[in-house]
Amino acid sequence: MSTVLSVDNLSAGYGRALAVRDVSFEVKEGEVVALLGRNGAGKTSTLLTLSGILKARGGTVSVGGRVVAPGRPYAATKAGIAHVPEERALFSGLTVRENLIIAGARGKSELAEVYELFPELERLIDRRAGLLSGGEQQMLALARALRQRPKVLMVDEMSLGLAPLICARLVSILRGLADTTGIAVVLVEQHLELALEAADRGYVLRHGSVVMSGTRDDLLLRRAELESSYLGGA
Ligand code: ATP
């Protein structure tokens, strides 16, 4: 499998403080990779840097072997990186349909594609996004991001505030997408169980650095260490 996303020695931060320190990881075609770590470990900042919102202080991000110009959200989007932020970035006063239209779903076939992946959205199409449940909002956010036809889909804390059943379903939808379309998925998660349910591999961040990485099975074997040292409470 070819490498879709390659992150090499990436550093970024706020003011003088570095939130991302020399982070390197890669995601191959059809892979789901989890970025794990407790609050403040630098997961969100890593995604923001990949999206060009936070300017890299060093290192490179490449998609399909081509370096993405740093600090420019448009360049990241153009390179094929889509980002579903923690807050989901929906227009809450607009309907589901309008949210999809703004993301570029203009015709029936595009809506049909959305319904195929997220059947719930069909009956909710004229409801305001702000009135949807958390799980439905997450589906809409994912559907919007997928309209970009990204090569890399990054999803930040998808599980936040959602019931376990819906999280499991969303994660399995992403797994299926990676398997069938080859899209490279980056899942930022605090929930180890959930992340490893779908992920092929994972990287654990602490104080902005990668401190552990491995395949799903490696990480499951080292779970006790992972949980006591790098996840859960401070
Ligand atoms: P969370 O799950 O809480 O989002 P995280 O692993 O994604 O945690 P980041 O949000 O990337 O972690 O935070 C990494 C570090 O950067 C933390 O020390 C945090 O306090 C700091 N930080 C994050 N956002 C800002 C900001 N806008 N200004 C200054 N410091 C920030």
Automatic annotation (TrEMBL):
<dbReference type="InterPro" id="IPR003439">
    <property type="entry name" value="ABC_transporter-like_ATP-bd"/>
</dbReference>
<dbReference type="Pfam" id="PF00005">
    <property type="entry name" value="ABC_tran"/>
</dbReference>
<dbReference type="InterPro" id="IPR027417">
    <property type="entry name" value="P-loop_NTPase"/>
</dbReference>
<dbReference type="InterPro" id="IPR052156">
    <property type="entry name" value="BCAA_Transport_ATP-bd_LivF"/>
</dbReference>
<feature type="domain" description="ABC transporter">
    <location>
        <begin position="5"/>
        <end position="232"/>
    </location>
</feature>
<comment type="similarity">
    <text>Belongs to the ABC transporter superfamily.</text>
</comment>
<keyword id="KW-0067">ATP-binding</keyword>
<keyword id="KW-0813">Transport</keyword>
<keyword id="KW-0547">Nucleotide-binding</keyword>
<dbReference type="InterPro" id="IPR017871">
    <property type="entry name" value="ABC_transporter-like_CS"/>
</dbReference>
<keyword id="KW-0029">Amino-acid transport</keyword>
<dbReference type="InterPro" id="IPR003593">
    <property type="entry name" value="AAA+_ATPase"/>
</dbReference>
<dbReference type="GO" id="GO:0005524">
    <property type="term" value="F:ATP binding"/>
</dbReference>
<protein>
    <submittedName>
        <fullName>ABC transporter ATP-binding protein</fullName>
    </submittedName>
</protein>
